[in-house]
Amino acid sequence: MRKLDRYVGQSVFLAVCLVAFVLLGLDFAITFIEEVKKVNEQYTATTLIQVLGLRMPGKLAEYLPVSSLIGTLIGLGALASTSEITVMRAAGIPLWRIGYAACKPVLALALAGLLVAEFVSPIAEQKANLVDKLQVGASNDFAITGGSWLKANGDYVYIDAADTKGNLYNITIYDREGDQLKAIQTAKRATQETDNIWKLHNIATSTFENDQISVSHADTLEWRSSLKADYLYLSTQKPDSLSLSQLYQYSSFLNEQGLNAGEYELAFWSKVFRPLSSLALVIVAISTIFGPLRSSTMGGRIFSGVLIGLAFQNTLYIMGRLSLVSSLPPLAGISLPIIACFIIGIYLLKRRH
User: Fold this and answer.
1) Which of 21, 184, 225, 268 gets the most CB atoms within 10 Å of its CB?
2) What is the pTM of this model?
3) Closest by alpha carbon to 20, among 115, 112, 129?
């Protein structure tokens, strides 16, 4: 039985890896074509390729569930098309045993993907975001490029980017008194000196007076603020680019502050349940191989796998987004489609006995 497990598992493993490689290649090519319009003297093609390369580990973890589905259809489908599955069944090997052999490599890949999503992709993705923002903003220091908006000491603050060392980049401070805007202060960089004191570097200050605007410049200035570097860094990152520990830490902080942490909780549970998503889709794939796709061509199996994968991912996305605008917890929004997928797959498998 070990030889059988190894033979079936190897077929599925190689097929899943091949599908993942193809999906990553297609994603890289399509994204490069879409983003190449950003290339200029500051943001070169080399920088774009570097950014896209750094985002590949995160894409790999994201594509593993669909890759597992299509890879299982291809791997088991190849065995079915050469009648090897039929011989196994004729030899008295139960259906669940073949399914178990197919699930083992997928589960191993899913757990490896979870480790990548925790320890590899966050570092690479966050570095890519920092390079992307700083290079795009190099030609226009005042461009709003999707960083983080905060309120500190009654003022509104925009931070374009941050790094893990606690440095902030391209900061804009809107100094106001009541409903009146008194001044706008921009700085290239900020570093935290103590708990409540930051040092701003390369500052330009526009002060609004009764009938004129005065502009002044300074190399460094002291900025008093209770903002914490760790949370500022996390606030400038997209939820999908954070690790599980960072998502848990920041969502807990937001909940303590009475702020909405739905986006971060949704990203947390999405990553936690990715291995179960892969397993649920593999069970559906196994049930279709022994059912309606038993005599289908390889192209038909791939097409069916893509349709099933798209339907599952879209349902997962819709339910997740629905949980953000309703009373449904993010945990339920993510888990319900996975549970439904398990139920459908197990039901179809029982019908094949």
Assistant:
1) 268
2) 0.85
3) 112
